[in-house]
Amino acid sequence: MPRRSKRPRRLVADARTYLWTLRHSHGVADGGRSCRQSLTLYPQPAGVGGPLRVVFTEGPGRYVPGGAPQGSGDVGHVRGAFLNLHEPGAVRALLDVALTRGWRPEVRRTVEIDGWSLLEAAAAARAGTGGPGARG
Q: How far, in Å, CA of 136 to CA of 129, rounded?
């Protein structure tokens, strides 16, 4: 049975369970021309903490999928680090970096982080060339 792309996925990290979703949207300030990927992790069980939203917005030297030629879920620098946000390992790497840099899942409020600030360290950790707290 194929996976439903809108249905939350489950991730277990360090004995804590999260549900995560990935959404694609377009900017309203520029008439819907810029793409944005939002990865949201929800600590479980529901109500034990607030979600983490990691947002990647298209910009100079950066790509966010809006169709061909990039694949769905791909985000990265035109000449540099990249991740596929559909891969659980990429989501785990972003989560680990966010935790290392101070996000606390038990705090009961939504926290939004610019994904570009986490990308280099997460991609390095994913590639095995740096720890989750590495600065890019």
A: 12
Q: Flag whether 134 is in a domain.
A: no
Give the separation between CA 18 and CA 42, rounded to whole angstroms.
5
Give the number of other Cβ atoms within 10 Å of residue 119's Cβ.
25
What is residue 69's three-state secondary structure? coil
User: Which H or E run contains 14?
Assistant: none
Query: In total, how many domains does the chain have?
Result: 1
Q: What pTM does this model have?
A: 0.85
Q: pLDDT tens digit string along 81-124?
A: 999 999 999 999 999 999 999 999 999 999 999 999 999 999 99
Q: Name the DSSP class of 96.
A: H
Cα–Cα distances in Å, from 40 out to 54, 104, 135?
6, 14, 22
Q: Is residue 100 in some structural domain?
A: yes
